[in-house]
Specification:
Chain lengths: ~160, ~280
């Protein structure tokens, strides 16, 4: 990959990568750091990375960086999650907002798989490559995520 | 294929995800159409599909871009220094043969703009480099900041002597070179000066991020903007100014003025390692 192709990667993938990471980390600053680190890493290796495989490289690298960040901040995240209040129905204005809140409560492996599937349109195999799971595990994670969201959305809508 | 209340979620999930063959999908669709419960459940599943928040964007994308080392980019200071040298050469041809004479009004040293010549303490190395570039093109120009200061001191003394004797001062001091208008195009992150006699910018406050705003030791405002790959540092001395720019348009033009309508400040353009000073009258 040459410099122009690297710059194209920035233009094409930086936003999507940021959306995926910030949705997982729920921290703009941390997400920006992960995206920056990921692109720096790509730049350092750009001569050895095929342009066609750059997106997968970026998402895999960002995912791993994100997992490291989550582990590093695990204690803080857990403390914050414990403080997070239950979802009062009257605060929500629509299904999308409720859905976003519910996605935040999914286990990380389900959330990441679902985000990569819906945000980026990745196949199970591609998500497996990024997250280091098998395609079957990815499918199960996405299935569980959708079933959980479906049930919780149903109950939230019933409350509204 | 028999979809019942025990297995319907797997079938609906596979249907939604596009995991079924065309034949299987048609069969599932047939059963969904015949069962209001399955229709409601499919709708509920469909609501779990996330839509990317398009308004969430990475805020500092330009900082990630890299310069193509193989592409030859002519530094901005080259254009400006060349233009400045040409302007001085023309002025020299017009005025120098006349010997002692009054200072041309359009280059008259303005007491306010004199402050635009920095003292060594607030001048960056890149700015000094630019001054040196000017000196290369024009022997009458200063070679460094310290000599500017000493020459100015001498001139001040000389002016006083001339004032006392009633003589017209000789125009032998450094004249700040004013670029009334600078126009350039942004093309794929490359800075291209198309016409050095032009006014700089589209940069409207609404669409230009002021990354750093501070007050310098002279009481002037110094705003730093980051636009694509180059940084525009605007320094305003002794006056209220405004900056107008529009980075969304390929043509970038900039002008500044104080509250009296006089343009009297200096701008420093930095493009990667290159730097240029543009003094606007």
């Amino acid at each position: 990959m040459n410099t122009e192709q690297y710059n194209n990667c920035v233009k094409i993938y930086a936003d999507g990568l940021f959306r995926f990471i910030v949705k997982n980390l729920r921290d703009d600053y941390e997400a920006e750091n992960v995206v920056q680190n990921t692109f720096e890493k790509l730049w350092m290796k750009h001569e050895n990375v095929d342009y066609e495989k750059a997106k997968a490289y970026l998402f895999t690298s960002a995912y791993n960086n994100m997992i490291d960040t989550i582990r590093k901040n695990k204690r803080i995240v857990e403390l914050e999650a414990a403080k997070e209040p239950a979802l009062p129905a009257n605060e929500y204005t629509g299904v999308t907002e409720i859905l976003n809140k519910l996605v935040n409560k999914l286990p990380e492996n389900q959330r990441s798989a679902l985000l990569l599937r819906d945000y980026e349109g990745y196949s199970y195999d591609e998500i497996a490559e990024i997250t280091g799971q098998t395609a079957a595990q990815v499918k199960v994670n996405i299935f569980r995520a959708r079933v959980t969201l479906k049930k919780q959305l149903g109950s939230m809508e019933a409350m509204i | 294929m028999n979809i019942n209340r025990e297995n319907y979620e797997e079938y609906l999930f596979d249907y939604l995800e596009g995991n079924l063959s065309a034949e299987q999908a048609a069969e599932v669709k047939k059963q969904i159409d015949a069962d209001p419960f399955l229709q409601a459940e499919l709708k509920a599943f469909e609501q779990t599909v996330l839509k990317p928040a398009e308004d969430v964007i990475f805020p500092n994308k330009e900082a990630l871009l890299k310069k193509d080392e193989n592409r030859k980019i002519i530094p901005l200071y080259y254009y400006i220094a060349t233009g400045v040298a040409a302007a001085i050469a023309i002025l020299a041809i017009v005025y120098l043969p006349k010997g002692d004479m009054e200072q041309p009004t359009h280059l008259a040293t303005n007491p306010t703009t004199d402050t635009l010549i920095n003292t060594p303490s607030d001048r960056s190395a890149t700015e000094e480099d630019f001054i040196k570039e000017e000196a290369i093109g024009t022997e009458t120009q200063l070679t460094d900041v310290n000599s500017t200061t000493s020459k100015e001191k001498d001139n001040t003394l000389e002016d006083k002597q001339n004032e006392a004797t009633g003589k017209t001062p000789v125009n032998n001091k450094l004249e700040p070179i004013y670029a009334d208008m600078i126009e350039y195009n942004l093309r794929e992150g490359e800075l291209e000066v198309t016409n050095r006699i032009a006014f700089i910018l589209p940069v409207t406050p609404e669409n230009t991020a002021i990354n750093d705003s501070s007050t310098d030791d002279k009481g002037g405002d110094a705003d730093t903007y980051t636009m694509n790959r180059f940084r525009l540092k605007q320094e305003l001395f002794d006056g209220v100014g405004s900056i107008f720019a529009n980075i969304k348009k390929p043509k970038l033009t900039l002008f500044t003025h104080d509250d009296q309508g006089n343009r009297k400040w200096r701008m420093v353009f930095q493009y990667d390692t290159y730097s240029a000073i543009i003094r606007v009258r």
